[in-house]
C-alpha cells in the first residue's frame, strides 16, 4: 500500500483531514427525516462529490458518510438489517475518491444510547461497532474514526471491537464542552485527559477531540491531552466557531477559513498531528488551514 | 440529621437505597409526604441548574432522578390512600418529526416527572398528527416539542399550525426547546413558552398551568 500507516506518516509531518459532510448532503437535497447514510447506496454520486471536494482541497485523508452507521442509528429508519451494505458502500465511495495515495478514516458516531440511562449494555456497544467496523474495512477503509463520543464506556467498547475484529488503525475523538473554571468535560463529565487516556488504554492509535468547540478551545483541549499522553498522535476536527442563530432561525458558523487558519500554528504547537474540521467547515477551511501550516 | 434531611442528601448524592430508606422513615414517622416532596422538587431544580452550568454531569443527574423516583415509589401509595395525590398536569412530550435525538428530551422528561407532572413520552421522530392525537387521548394540558437540529425546528411550528386548523389551539399550551432553539424563535412561531433547560422547563410548565 503506497500510503502506509497513518501513525508512521505522522512521525514526519502534520496531516490534514476533511471538514463537514452533513451540510453538503442537505445542500444536495437530503430531506428532514431522511437517513443520511442511506445516500451511500441511493445517491452515491452525490456522496462521492463531497469526498472528492476535500481531496481537491488538499486533505491527506477523508472520512466516510457512515457517522450514524451502527444498527441502533440505522434502526431509527428501519435500516438495522442493512448495516453491512451501507457501511461497505460508504467506505467504497471514499476509497474511490481517495485513490491509493490518500487515507480513508471511516466515521463511526455514537449509538445514541447510554448505559447510564439503562438503554444499552457494554456488550451491545461492542457487537454494534464490531458489525460496523468489519463492513467499513471490507469497503476499503484504512482506519476507523470513532467520533463525537461523550461516554467513555461506549468509546472503549467501540475501540476494542475495531481492534479485535479488524486490521484498521483506530482513531477515537470525544466532544468536550466548556465547564466550570475553564475546564472542558464531556456530557458525562469526563475530562479530555481522562477520556483520551481511556481510549489509548483500550487500544486507540490516535486520540483527540471533535465538534463542540472552535479552534481556540481546541488548543486548550489538545494541551491537556498532550500533558497526559506525551507520545500519542492527536486528531482535531474543530467546528468553524460556535453557531449563532440568525434572524431567519438558521444556524450560522462564524469562523471564516482565514480565522481558522490563524489558529493552526498554535494548534500544532499544542500537539495536534491531524487537523480537520467539523460543523460549519467546508473545503475552503481545510485548504486555508493546510496552507497556513505548510507555508 | 432528621429523615427529611437524610432524604434530601440521599437524592443529591444519587443514593437510591438510602433515599428509599429515608422515605420509609418519613412515612413511619407520620410526616405528611407533601412537604418533603416539595423540598425534593426544589433540590432537583437546583441539580438541573448545576447540570446546565456543567457543574455536575449526566450521571449525577440520572442517579439523583433515580433516587427521587425510589422515594416517590414509597410516597405515592400513601398519597393515594390519603387522597392527597394530585398530578400537577399532563404533558405530551416528543422530539420533532425527523429528529432522531432524544437525550435532551429525556432529561426534560425526567425532571418534569420528578417535579410532579405526568409525562407521556412519544419518543423521537414524532409526527405532527401524533402529538395532537395523543394530547387529545390523554387529555393533556401541555404539548412539548424538542428539536436538536435546525432542520427539524419547523416541526414545532407545524404542530401549532395544525392545532389552529383543527380549532384546538386554545385547548393546549405548547412549549418548545432544544439546543438550536431560542425564545425569539418560540415567540415568532407562536408557542406558549420556551425554555433553554430542563429546570426552566419545570418553572415554565408550572407557570403555564397556574395561568390557566
Question: What is the strand and helix layout of this fold?
Answer:
The complex is a heterodimer of chains A (295) and B (212).
Chain A: H1 6-9, E1 15-16, H2 22-27, H3 39-42, H4 44-56, E2 61-62, H5 71-75, H6 83-98, E3 103-108, H7 122-138, E4 143-149, H8 152-165, E5 169-174, E6 177-178, E7 184-185, H9 192-202, E8 206-210, H10 215-228, E9 234-238, E10 243-245, E11 251-253, H11 257-270, E12 272-277, H12 283-294
Parallel strand pairs in A: 1-12, 2-3, 3-4, 4-5, 5-8, 8-9, 9-12
Antiparallel strand pairs in A: 6-7, 10-11
Helix pairs in contact in A: 4-6, 6-7, 7-8, 8-9, 9-10, 10-11, 11-12
Chain B: H1 3-13, H2 16-28, H3 34-52, H4 58-81, E1 90-95, H5 103-114, E2 118-121, H6 128-138, E3 142-146, H7 154-165, E4 173-177, H8 183-189, E5 193-194, H9 198-210
Parallel strand pairs in B: 1-2, 1-3, 3-4, 4-5
Helix pairs in contact in B: 1-2, 1-3, 1-4, 2-4, 3-4, 3-9, 4-5, 5-9, 6-7
| Multimerization state | heterodimer
Biggest sheet strand line-up of chain B = 2-1-3-4-5
CATH superfamily of the largest domain in chain B: Cobalamin-binding domain
CATH homologous superfamily (4th level) name of chain A: Homocysteine-binding-like domain
Structural class of chain B: alpha/beta
Number of strands of chain A: 12
Describe the sheet with the most strands of chain B: 5 strands, parallel
Please count the helical segments of chain B. Answer: 9
Give the helix tally of chain A.
12
Apparent shape of chain A: globular
In the CATH scheme, the class of chain A would be: Alpha Beta
C-alpha termini separation of chain A: 28 Å
Order of helices and strands of chain B: HHHHEHEHEHEHEH
The largest beta-sheet of chain A arranges its strands as 1-12-9-8-5-4-3-2
Helix content of chain B: 55-70%
Task: Determine the N-to-C terminus distance of chain B.
Answer: 40 Å
Biggest interface:
A-B, 26 and 29 residues
Helical/strand content category of chain A: alpha/beta
Arithmetic mean pLDDT of chain B: 90
Q: What is the typical, i.e. mean, pLDDT of chain A?
A: 94
